[in-house]
Amino acid sequence: MRLFEVEDRFSNDLTMVLRNLLGRSDSKHSSIKLSYDALSNLIKNLGYGGINYATFNKMYDQNPGIQAMVKDYNEAGVELGTEIEQQPAPTSPDTGNSQTVQTMARNANPYM
Hints:
By secondary structure, the protein is mainly α. Helix content is 52%, strand content 11%. The chain contains six helices and three strands, in the order αβαααββαα. It has helices at residues 7-27, 36-44, 53-62, 64-69, 83-86, 101-108, and strands at 32-35, 70-73, 77-80. Residues 84-89 have low confidence and may be disordered.
């Protein structure tokens, strides 16, 4: 069976593999870098042949789901981005109008 015969299924399975890796990465608050050999081993477990830069580049260009999960890729491998890295940094609260915990407690219970 040739890759172009199962290209759509291959793209969906590759998306699933990357999503699972990204889920593991998010739970550990770190990103994952994979070589194409490592990614090929994961894909081979699903019954496909190996993957290289050219094949991955083609899948990346055609699949917005893969684009959303990949932080960077090059000839050496793929780096998956995590939700932690993609979230904006938290801003400090406005201290001008903020109440202290004691003030809020007194407002809630006037007998304090």
